[in-house]
# Entry
Amino acid sequence: MAISTTVEQYVAQHANSELAAVFAAIATAAVSIERAIRLAGLSDIYGAYGAVNVQGEQQQKLDVFANDELIAELGKVPSVAAIVSEEDEAPVAFDRVDGRFAVIFDPLDGSSNIDVNVNVGTIFSIAAVSGDVVTSVLKPGTAQVAAGYVVYGPSCVLVLTLGKGVAAFTLDDEGEFILTSDNMTMPAQGPYYSANEANAASWPQVYRDYLGTLVDKKLNGQAYSARYIGSLVADFHRTLLKGGVFLYPATEKQPQGKLRLLYEARPLAMIAEQAGGGAVNGATRILDLPAEGIHDRTALIVGSKAEVDALQSAVAGAK
Ligand code: AHG
Ligand code: MN
Ligand code: MN
# Structure
């Protein structure tokens, strides 16, 4: 019987006990969020919360529940100085003398899928804090200490990187996330592209042309299938395991892009690159993009090296 390694043990071995305590808090919150999602039909936790968040979006009850759980658990960790959440306009600072980390998260990603029993997730990034919290978290994505996500699906899986490769942990019956994959690598090219093609009419032309080359098998002769779940975390997890590309270009409605730089694009970009893939906003590497504000939005193209490199050179050539 192989010895099972929990996520806290893995982080303590590969980093330090302070960071392990942060992951332990995230894991505890995730166990509670997973249970709330699984039993949502039996409690009154589906549907809208009745408030609009800083994004101007209707908050779902589970968005608020997940946010509260993460803040409660992370608030108990001495090394966590502050959190930044999709659901809160400003950072939540814990008055700590020895706070070293800020945890930046999307507490529940894919909210539109909650009520139809489709995978949703939690996405998080961990930044080092020195002095001002906002200044610390606005540093480029290359400064991230760690990143990860939890995908709540047929099984509940936590994926992380500490900057030394990508590992995955599966939630067991005792409420522990057990190491199930280490040194994960994304296929160099994949069989899937993932995009909301209903927006194609308002994409910059170069993206419509790019999708056409994939459909016409013009990228190394690869034939593609379309897969679009509408939960970034699930579309990304499939891309990490199977390969291919997820793209959410800018649209007329959202010329800056829809997805959030600090707590959607950057953590997934770090994981993608650590697994041998890539992530750009079109022309620029996501991890190099500067941030002006904690809720900045960006276009996101993330996935296997072949598809992301092909897109980036198409955009460069279109200039
Ligand atoms: P969130 O639920 O945190 O607001 O994120 C939703 C995001 C992301 O999960 C997904 O990829 C995207 O919205 C789907 O957008 P469209 O419905 O416009 O395709
Ligand atoms: Mn999201
Ligand atoms: Mn969300």
Q: What stands out?
A: The chain has a mean pLDDT of 96. The pocket of manganese (II) ion (ligand 2) is lined by residues 106, 109, 232, 264 (CB under 6 Å).
